[in-house]
Amino acid sequence: MPRKKKSRDPLVLNRLSVEELEDVCHVLNGEDGPELQLALRQLIVTWQESGPNLMNMMFADGPLFRDMRESLKVQWVPTDTGRAHLVFSPAISEDKKEKGRDGKYRVSAEGVALTLFYTLTLHPEWDRLGGPCARCARYYIKKTARQTKYCTRQCGSLATAIASTRKRLDEEHADKLRRAIAATRNWPATRTNLNWKQWVSRREPDITSKWLTRAVNKGELRLPEIKQQLSKA
Ligand SMILES: [Zn+2]
């Protein structure tokens, strides 16, 4: 079921909750469309690769630094208690707006991605954003600080199962290849009318002619030397 589209602005800076982080996650996972997903992913990947170290990221990209500094408006808003809020709303420049079908100008995907990037970087729990998951590539909210690789326990154990199956198949393949090489080497000296593939697969029943052909094509197995004609004396 598609989630209810979130209205994004204005955000209360001093009251950010995990919901705002989840919103960033949903967008990164494509729930608001591929265009916004791509725009935000580009920012997040660069951010992650920087350390994350925002200072380095901004110094490495002057135009982005300028956009970030200029695209945000913060207002002090009194409440009916003794407290005030800091409300921030995007002040996206004209070049990040585009004309919609109804003729009205709206913020482009790039502009929305910028506002989500503010949300993440101003969020007190910014380091709970995890992902992409090593198995399913989704972004997620970390439940513990150690949860750095997989989005869920399920993805973690599936990945382990896949890795161990792959390891077992690799070992089986290596064992077959070892036996095939040994048998192929012996073939030229035998007194058999069988060709080498037939002879090898008779000696090693789990190795078929097809398997041998593939091994030769992949360069894993060398063809045997030519069999010397045995005179029938
Ligand atoms: Zn996953």
Question: How does this model look, in words?
Answer:
α1 packs antiparallel against α5 and α2 (34-49) crosses α5. The model has no long low-confidence stretch (mean pLDDT 89). A hairpin with a 5-residue loop joins β4 (97-99) and β5. This protein has 233 residues and is mainly alpha-helical. It has helices at 18-28, 34-49, 54-60, 62-70, 109-122, 153-186, 196-203, 209-217; strands at residues 11-12, 72-78, 84-90, 97-99, 105-107, 129-130, 140-141. The chain is elongated. Helix content is 46%, strand content 11%. The strands form 3 sheets. A 3-stranded antiparallel sheet has the order 1-3-2. It folds into 2 domains: 11-151, no CATH class; 158-217, no CATH class. It is built from 8 helices and 7 strands. Bound molecules: zinc ion. Zinc ion (ZN) binds next to loops. Zinc ion is lined by residues 133, 135-136, 138, 150-152, 155.
Ions, cofactors and other ligands present here are: zinc ion
Low-confidence parts: none
Terminal CA distance reads 82 Å
- Give the helix/strand class: mainly alpha
The share of residues in extended strands comes to 5-15%
Number of domains: 2
Tell me the number of strands.
7
Shape: elongated
Strand line-up across the major sheet: 1-3-2
Topology pattern, helix = H, strand = E: EHHHHEEEEHEEHHH
Radius of gyration: 31 Å
In helices, the fraction of residues equals 40-55%
Helix run count = 8
Largest pleated sheet: 3 strands, antiparallel
